[in-house]
Design brief:
Elements lengths: L4 E5 L3 H9 L4 E5 L14 H13 L3 E6 L8 H14 L3 E4 L2 H10 L5 E3 L8 H9 L2 E5 L6 H13 L3 E8 L11 H6 L16 E5 L3 E3 L13 E3 L4 H6 L4 E4 L6 H20 L1 H19 L6 H21 L1 H9 L5 E2 L22 E10 L4 E6 L12 E6 L7 H10 L3 H24 L3 E6 L5 E4 L17 E6 L16 E6 L1 H9 L12 E9 L5 E8 L5 E7 L5 E2 L7 H8 L7 E9 L4 E2 L2 H22 L4 H19 L4 H4 L9 E6 L2 H8 L7 E5 L6 H9 L11 H14 L6 E5 L6 H16 L5 E4 L4 H9 L3 E3 L8 H6 L5 E3 L6 H15 L7 E8 L2 E5 L6 H15 L17 E5 L4 E6 L6 E4 L3 E3 L4 H6 L4 E5 L5 H15 L7 H10 L3 E2 L9
Parallel strand pairs: 1-2, 1-11, 2-3, 3-4, 4-5, 5-6, 6-7, 7-11, 10-12, 20-24, 26-27, 26-38, 27-28, 28-29, 29-30, 30-31, 31-32, 32-38, 37-39
Antiparallel strand pairs: 7-10, 8-9, 8-34, 13-14, 13-19, 14-18, 15-16, 15-19, 17-18, 20-21, 21-22, 23-25, 32-37, 33-36, 34-35, 35-36
Helix pairs in contact: 1-2, 1-9, 2-3, 3-18, 5-6, 9-12, 9-15, 10-11, 20-22, 21-27, 22-23, 29-30
């Protein structure tokens, strides 16, 4: 059984040591710049160098994240940084920007590239592209499902590419690399490592900006997923032959890094070496295999028995790993999910109640004594980590818990003293206040504190425990905790049934602090060393070693002592003494599996000289290990020359004004994104202002139906594109646009898992057989080249390609046009255009560059649920009334939902919610429309001649009028811009320039 590499997050020097001592095979870290976790502690270049040395000495690989999008003005700096990383011998760099892939391959070809999950390679065409571009490993999106993963692994391995998946840590709501929500809200971009995590804020689902859809019993964190944990499914991951499993968490605590890495290492080792664990896994798999093969009514009983036996075996397996599971819950988590990979209900991915640390569930409040301030907690079965003094607990009070008023009155009558009655009244007031506060939002209230005095543990099995009347119903263990003095004034009702979580365990924190000093708890994979000692004919000592590193390299080192040994006057030094001194290696990460002493002379040497020989040997051995990871001198020299030439070309300036054609000479083009045949027909009856139409096929189901299917977790096969619908849609579109002044281009979905991708290929193939020609717009790396080669279509690049710099343009030189990322600001675009003009003078076949100047930018695309079952019921009731009598007002073949759905944030901004042809995907648009109408002159002055408007989901009047407004400004027909600006103001109440003026933070 080959175990996957265990890859640990390192955000600081402390993380580094803890991750390695806890059993990581490899670590990933970032420099102070160019990493996707800008606000982690991170490492300076000298610190990276030291980290690489420490890791390599301990047989641990180092991957450095350079996984942000690079602005034009940063290319020289990042090129020098990559050269420095190559020089110090890092094992790989993690890359998002396709421009950097080109830069590395052309200038530092021996530097290993891993494709970041931000690059969003998610199908075999993307894998093929990666192979052709010298990428050695791909980090798959967290949205990958099991049946997709199997195909990808098999295909990747056939091309010699490794596959890495996330196994533990935070989940993003959006596909990585496709999230602009933080960027559009406040200029902090996830693509630049500064995400402000707006997905962890409160949101409200809203219809038509008038109807709030927020069930009282659900939380308001609609975009906040749980944390991923595949710990209980590591056996399945190992069997899939995944090459690396990744733990997320560079910005989390020391105890998180150490605890998670340690427990994953223990579990992986168990799977490989523990016979009991292996036998249990075999039995589960055998029962599952047999159960799947059974058919017919006669086997229904047997199937049920198998299911019961499988459940028992899995429970036994869980009990085996119970301590580890509890420890994982004690460090930061938002509650755990198996994500998209392990087939469970999709709603299980989201945690709407709160975005913070959940902790370990320990039990429920059995009762609270207001006189003694004692909280009686009925502990859950098999709990290992019982709360102790100094630990932190959190009480979660669901406002919907029923409280028996009659029982409360009976209890009140039993109270004897005024103090007792006062305490009871105080508790009732607190309950009333909490319930009043929660009538509007239905949110769960929490109350946390550190335990200030030693808790009392009682066990129902203990015959010496004298139960009170109130404890008669107890079976199990009861923990009695006193409220801390300073929190007694807090009005929080401690209601029976309230959940209790352990959020901080001091013993675990102390264990992590002590880890560096406890060698017996280290999980370091030491290098195997053979030592040979002998005395030569001149009585000089020699020490030779053969060291086998974990990466397969063998280092041979020989040294000779500085002084000859003398003939012994009294007692010669023994071989045992020599051996004893040579074996004193302390904490060095070597295992001496063999030592040979060849000394048959009667010689003497001071012990200090033997020790000095040993120290010299191991110091030189350390140097040899570090050097073994570094590039060859000739390769390094080639890389230096290449980078110097690259930088010199970047520094070569041109006069941009002289390269830009004047308005009379230039042919300016305006494009529009639409997704309706009715709009396309309508545009034919209007005066043409568009040169290109990017047509997206809308889903042929409404929002409610799609949401229902996502909640029911329909298989991917059921989410195949409706090929007949798509072919007919495009065929009709081609017919409508025949002999028109614009060029029709099919805009593909921006995410294409296996079924979607195969459907796209079939659709284009069918159209070709029908002699129906249509070019495509796409952002799908790999599939673009495949479609171009197979069907000879022209390619147009959509903005999710994330074109930030000239290297990305040159890498995508098989496109007709490329949309520049809407995140970058005017200075970045100018810098890009200067280098673009330099390149186009050498190669006129480069893609034209286009700027999106108007429309709702896609802030997110997600595969996670947005609408819960309870919300869907409320939507259905509301929308049934809306639909009555409207069935004849639109074309049912190409139905677009008549209601408008929004997410409303705490700043009262409304984000439109849309669906696309991928029915298991949801798109969230920006709340404000991008509008650069007063920047057209500037864009023209720096050489931009292609402009686009995203008018999907808009009316015909909107598209025609907004299009004319921009065309008048572009063609300089208007005396001033006031008329165009008035037109825009009529349709667009909320406008933004996004990052165009201020740039990203």
């Amino acid at each position: 059984m080959k175990l996957p590499e265990l890859l640990a997050p390192v955000g600081s020097a402390e993380h580094l040591k803890l991750a390695i001592l806890s059993g990581a095979n490899s670590i990933y870290l970032s420099g102070e710049n160019f990493g996707a976790r800008k606000y982690a502690e991170n490492f300076s270049v000298p610190e990276i160098r030291e980290a690489v040395k420490y890791a390599h000495l301990h047989n641990v690989k180092v991957y450095v994240t350079v996984n942000i999008l690079i602005k034009e003005g940063e290319l020289e700096k990042v090129a020098n940084y990559l050269l420095e990383l190559y020089k110090m011998g890092v094992d790989a760099v993690l890359i998002q920007d396709i421009g950097l892939v080109k830069l590395i391959n052309e200038n530092i070809p021996e530097l290993t590239i891993h494709a970041s999950t931000q690059m969003n390679i998610h199908n075999i065409e993307g894998i093929k592209w990666a192979s052709e571009h010298n990428i050695k490993r791909i980090v798959l999106p967290r949205e990958t499902e099991m049946n997709e993963l199997k195909e990808i692994i098999d295909y990747a391995h056939s091309l010699g590419i490794e596959i890495e998946i996330f196994a533990h840590g935070a989940l993003c709501y959006s596909y990585s690399g496709h999230c602009l929500l933080s960027s559009m809200q406040g200029g902090r971009s996830g693509n630049r490592g500064t995400c402000a995590q707006p997905c962890r804020e409160r949101y409200e689902l809203n219809i038509n900006k008038t109807k709030k859809i927020n069930p009282k019993t659900e939380g308001e964190y609609l975009l906040s997923p749980k944390d991923l944990s595949l710990f209980e499914h590591l056996d399945e991951i190992v069997n899939l032959e995944v090459d690396s499993i990744k733990i997320e968490g560079r910005m989390r605590s020391n105890d998180y890094v150490a605890t998670v890495v340690k427990n994953y290492r223990k579990r992986l080792n168990k799977l490989r070496y523990d016979k009991t664990s292996q036998a249990l896994n075999r039995n589960i798999k055998e029962l599952e295999r047999k159960s799947k093969g059974k058919k017919g009514r006669s086997t229904d009983l047997k199937k049920a028995q198998d299911k019961e036996n499988i459940a028992k075996l899995k429970q036994e397996q869980k009990l085996q790993n119970l301590e580890s599971l509890e420890e994982l819950e004690l460090v930061f988590n938002r509650e755990f999910t198996t994500g998209h990979l392990i087939p469970k209900n999709n709603p299980m991915i989201m945690n709407r109640k709160k975005p913070g640390h959940q902790g370990l569930y320990v039990g429920k409040i059995h009762r609270y004594n207001p006189q003694t301030e004692e909280i009686h907690i009925l502990l859950k079965d098999n709990l290992i980590h019982i709360p102790e003094k100094g630990d932190g607990i959190l009480i979660e009070n669901n406002p919907n818990l029923d409280v028996d008023d009659n029982k409360s009155k009976r209890d009140e009558k039993k109270l004897k003293t005024k103090q007792d009655k006062r305490a009871k009244r105080k508790e009732k007031r607190a309950k009333k206040e909490i319930n009043q506060d929660n009538q509007n939002d239905g949110s769960i209230q929490t109350y946390g504190f550190d335990i200030s005095s030693k808790p009392v543990l009682k066990d129902s099995k203990d015959r010496h425990w004298r139960k009170r009347e109130k404890d008669k119903d107890i079976e199990g263990k009861l923990l009695v905790i006193k409220r801390v003095r300073e929190n007694k004034r807090i009005n929080f009702p401690l209601v029976k049934g309230s959940k209790v979580y352990l959020t901080k365990k001091n013993s675990l924190i102390n264990e992590v602090k002590d880890l560096p000093h406890k060698k017996e708890e280290h999980y370091i994979k030491k290098s195997l060393l053979e030592l040979y000692f002998h005395i030569d004919s001149d009585n000089y000592p020699h020490l030779k070693g053969n060291l086998k590193l974990d990466n397969g390299k063998v280092i041979t080192l020989k040294i000779k002592g500085e002084k000859a040994w003398e003939e012994a006057i009294k007692k010669p030094i023994s071989n045992e003494t020599i051996k004893k001194q040579l074996l004193k290696i302390g904490d060095l990460p070597y295992y001496i599996e063999k030592i040979t002493i060849n000394n048959n002379k009667s010689l003497f040497s001071p012990i200090s000289e033997i020790n000095e020989l040993r120290r010299t040997f191991f110091n030189k051995l350390e140097e040899e290990i570090i050097e073994s990871y570094k590039p060859k001198l000739e390769d390094l020299e080639i890389a230096k020359r290449n980078i110097n030439s690259f930088n010199e070309e970047l520094r070569r300036k041109i006069d941009l004004k002289s390269k830009v054609k004047n308005s009379a000479e230039e042919e300016y083009k305006l494009s529009a994104y639409i997704n309706s045949l009715e709009i396309l027909r309508g545009l034919n009856n209007k005066k043409s202002v568009f040169d290109r139409i990017y047509l997206e096929i809308p889903p042929n189901k409404d929002f409610e139906e799609i949401s229902q299917e996502i909640l029911e977790n329909k298989s991917l096969k059921e989410h195949d594109l409706n090929i007949s619908y798509c072919v007919n849609f495009l065929k009709e579109a081609i017919e409508i646009s025949k002999d028109q002044d614009y060029k029709l281009i099919w805009k593909l979905p921006d995410i294409a898992p296996k079924q979607t991708k195969e459907s796209i290929i079939k659709i284009i193939g069918i159209l070709k057989k029908m002699n129906q020609e249509i070019d495509i717009m796409t952002s799908l790396i790999g599939l673009d080249e495949s479609l171009k080669d197979k069907f000879d279509v022209n390619l147009y690049g959509n903005y999710p390609l994330n074109v930030y710099n000239i290297e990305a343009v040159l890498e995508r030189n098989n496109y007709k046009t490329l949309s520049i990322s809407p995140e970058i600001y005017k200075k970045n675009i100018k810098d890009l255009m200067e280098d673009y003009c330099k390149e186009i003078s050498k190669d006129t076949s480069l893609p034209e560059l286009e700027v999106l100047v108007h429309g709702n930018i896609e802030s997110m695309i997600t595969r996670k649920e947005l609408v819960s079952k309870k919300q869907l019921k409320l939507i259905s009731k509301y929308s049934q009334k809306q639909r009555k009598g409207n069935n004849d007002s639109f074309d049912n073949r190409y139905y677009i939902d008549s209601n408008e759905y929004y997410l409303k944030n705490r700043r009262n901004q409304y984000y439109p919610i849309k669906t696309n042809l991928n029915e298991d995907m949801t798109i969230i648009l920006n709340s404000e429309e991008l509008c650069l109408i007063d920047e057209i002159g500037y864009l023209k002055s720096i050489g931009i001649s292609n402009f686009s408007i995203d008018a999907r989901w808009k009316s015909l009047d909107y598209i025609a009028d907004i299009g004319k407004a921009y065309r008048d400004i572009i063609d300089e027909k208007a005396q001033d811009s006031s008329e165009s600006e008035n037109t825009i103001a009529k349709y667009c109440p909320d406008l933004t320039k996004a990052n165009f003026d201020k740039g990203l933070k």
